[in-house]
Structure formats: C-alpha cells, structure tokens
Conserved oligomeric Golgi complex subunit 5 (Mortierella polycephala), 432 residues
Amino acid sequence: MTTTIPELDSYTDYDSFLVDQFDPNTHANSIIHQSAKGDLDIATSLSSLSFSIDSLNKQLHDQVTTHYNDLLSQAAGIRELETVLKTVKVGLKALSTSMERLSFKIKTPFEQIQTYTTQLERLQVTSEMLRRVLRFLYLSKRLEMQMPGGDLELTKAALTLSEVDALLQESDLEGIHVVDNEVRNLESVRTRIVESADRMLQEGMDSQNQAQVGSALQVFYSLKRLDLKIVAMTSYLSNRLHSQIKQAVDIQSLQKEAKESGMGNTTGFVGGGVRRNNGEPSVGAAALWTSILWKRMEKLMDEMYNGCVKIYLLERVLSRKRDPLTQTSFLEIASNSMDGNMVHRFWQSLSTHLEQELKASARSSQFIHQAFIDGFPRLLNLLHEFFSRASVHSATAVSEDVQSPEVVLMLRAISSFESAYKAKTAQRGGHR
C-alpha cells in the first residue's frame, strides 16, 4: 500500500535534508543569513521544522501501526538470522582453526622437504663439481708426469690431454681458480705434443718406420686432429712433388745449370752455348742440355718414388690402426674426411701436376718440347721403372696386360708427347 504525503507536508522542502553532504550547521547558518536579510523569519523556520518533525513522527507511527504484523515477523526473522549467523560464525571459526592445524601439519613439512630437497640438489651438484675438479687435477698431474717421457710417453700424454678436453667440454669449470690456472698451461702442452708428433711422423715417413708413424697418427687421433693431419700431409707431399716437377723442367733453371756446367768444360761452348736471343741452346750445346734434362728427370722419378713410398706407408699404417671402441680403421676416417681414397687422390694430383708442368714447359721452350718427343721412349722407360719400384710398396703389381688406375693416370699425362712421337716415327717410315 502506497502512503501519500499529507497535503500540508507538500509545502515542506525535504530534498535539502536528503543530500549526502547535508550539514546542520550550514543549514542553520543559511536560515540565519536569510533572516538577517529579511527574506525569512527564524521563528517561522523553527515552527516549520517543528511541524515537519511532528508530521514525520506521525507518518512513522502510522507506518508502524499499519505494518505492525509484518514488522514483528521480520524482527523475529532477524533474530533467527542472527542465530544462524552466529552458528555459521562458530563453524567458520572452527574451520579456520582446522585449516591452521592442517597447514601446520602439511605446509610446514612441505616447506622443510622443499628446503632439504634444494639442499640435496645443491650438495649433489657441488659433489659432482668437486669430483670433476679432482679428476681434472689428477689428469693434469698425470699429463705433467708424462710430458718429459719422450716419444714413448707421447701417445699416453695425447690420450690424457684428450680426456682433459672431454672433461672440460662436458663440465663448466670456468671460474674455478685452480682449474683456470691449469687450463692456461694446457695450450703450451698441446703445442709441444703436436710439434713432437709432427716431428715423429716426419722422421717415421723418412725412415719408413711404421712404429713411429703409427704412434704419431695415434697422437693426432687422440687429439681429434687425424683427418686434418692426413689432409695436410697428403697436400704437403703433392705440393712438394709439384714444386720438384716444375723445377725439373724449368727452362730458366736448366739454362743456369747448363751455363755453370759449360764454364768448366773444354768443348768451346762458353756459358753452355746458350743463344742470347731466345734462351735456347746452340747446336753444339744441345747435347749438354739434353744430358742435364734427363738427369733431372731421373732425379724427379726418384723423388716421385719417395713420395709414393711415403703415401703407401701412410695408407698401410692407417689401415692397421683402429678406434678401440668402434673398430673403425683410421684409413676409413681419413677417407671420409677427404671425400675419397687418399692414395687415388694423391696419384690424381701427381699426374695432373706432371701433365701441366710438362706441357707448360714444352710450350715455353722448343728445346724441351723436342727433347720429350725425340726422347719419348726414354721418358716412357723412366716411368715404367718408376711404376715397377712403386708397385713393390702397393697392393697392385705392374703388369703388361692389366694396368692399374695409377699407371693409366700417369701415362695419360705424357700422351701428347706419345702422339707426337708416333706421328714423327710414322713420317720417317713413310719417307723410307
């Protein structure tokens, strides 16, 4: 039921009393201020306020009287609600107490276990770190004792150094002073081991000592440098032979040697009989030049033979040495890194250099061009003697019927002189 405001109350302004920021003092001061200006009488305002208060009290009394039963039932409900709320409050307090007890039983042990677990993990890491440091120091001490042992202890020292490298790679020991101090010395030790292995390998190759070569290769394998060393060694042998081939047929070098030889003979060919206009020998000095050239070719064949012997020795030792775990031969490891057979690549390089230098020399000198054509049987005989000597150290024997790939490569290098020789021989036969 909607209650209407009495007609007399409609003249009373209740809105000013409903403002959230209503201040009695401010409102009273406003009435006094208006009274002082003559706009409003204080007595009238007080009378109006008293009337409004009486009216509101009467209205409240009417509302209570009208809704008496409803208010009683709501008051009774409030009492019941307070009882329920009190029960809930007691239950919440009991729950909070239980949660605290449960937290103490679970959270505290959990935090302790978490702390102990962290401590255990850190202790394990520290223990493992100390174990690796001790292992590193032990290996460093062993390496220090092995280094003065000479060639016999060199392979052991290389193996120890490889263990040290592996340990440093799998463990972060940087920042540990005792380790950092030792690491600085490792590079100088590594340099000494590599230099000693290089010397041992070179001495073993020169003396054909398989034990020395094998020990040196084992050192490079332990240091994970075997493939690089084999590539470097084969390149060194190929480049050295290339330089010797070039020197053997160099017309300037030949001219100089002919001059030096000609100064000491009594044939009358001063300075080796060299014509100054084109650097070719005079007719009388041609025999001297030819003799010097073929002596050089004979010496070159000896150098080529020595190079082949070394490469075959290297191949033989590599095929016998194996990885102790995988049983993979060192030769297979070297071949994989070189993308092909080591010996075949050496022969390819040798034949290519021989062909290039012989052709280049023949183009630059008419004397050399003619000497190799006229003396082709001699050149072929030198090569066959070279093949026969080299085949003793290889698995392939020289045969008249079946030629090895190496022989084919080398004969192809002099094929241009062979063709010219056959054409010249055929022309002579036709004239007869």
Remarks:
- Residues 228-324+337-431 form one domain.
